Amino acid sequence: MQEDVTTHFLKPDTYFEDVIERYNFERRLRLILFDAIERIEIALITSMIYLCNEVTPNHHIKTRILDLFASNPNLPIYKLGFLNNWRNQPIWK
Fold first, then answer.
1. Are 3 and 10 in contact (CB under 8 A)?
2. Averaged pLDDT, 9-22
3. Which of 6, 10, 24, 29 is deepest in the core (most CB within 10 A)?
């Protein structure tokens, strides 16, 4: 849509509606991608904990993660991919 990235002139026959449409498309695409990435993160963390439980039942990873969160109460846990009710999941009990 831009003819020149330095001067920010638009190409001929570019309309404001086209710019808004592209912006909205990219916003929706970004939301879809981040949602997918979040699901993958949660699956990886869950798989890691499960494998640790299977390989070494007496491991301390859950305790260490819980201690880390307890010692850093301002840590935005949701940004790490944990759902609001993550403590209620069977794998954390």
1. yes
2. 85
3. 10
